[in-house]
Amino acid sequence: MKYYQFLITGDDKIHYPVPRIGIVTKARMIFLVIKFMSIFKNKGGNECLKRLKKIQPTKNYNFSDKTEKYLFARKVNSFVQKWVNVKHKQAICLERAAVICAALRFVGLPAQVVIGRRRTIMSVIDYEFHAWVELDNVPVNDKIAYQQLCMEIHRAP
């Protein structure tokens, strides 16, 4: 974890104590992932994005600073990505973003799904549109470069 934190923060002197996610919270997150993937499949992306507003946090974690909060968000992201891959490995970016955002909001983090459109035709992005999750305007589940490569067209919730 220390090496991972160095790669993200660039600081090799401080080791941030990232809060643990309890087993009950993990189990509830798995059910949330399955529920949101089912909603996406049956009712579409718009319905998933609408339901993000209704998610009530199960626990409020206390963080000493933004870096610790971001590292915790990345930890939740990694856990959720594994379950998304188990359930539907070919999930599109909007589906992944909605599910990850739901999980982050479930643990009390005010995450948002951002949908962007490719800025130029000669971009390195394969698709014209892309969706990712942001926490405090920093991408959690994707590269920070997407903020420059894509023009934001929608943010939810």
TrEMBL record:
Gene3D superfamilies according to UniProt: 3.10.620.30
Domain of life: Bacteria
InterPro entries reported in the protein's UniProt record: McjB-like (IPR053521), McjB_C (IPR032708), Papain-like_cys_pep_sf (IPR038765)
Domain Microcin J25-processing protein McjB C-terminal: 69-144
Pfam short name (any one): Transglut_core3
Stated name of the protein: Microcin J25-processing protein McjB C-terminal domain-containing protein
Annotated organism of origin: Bacillus sonorensis L12
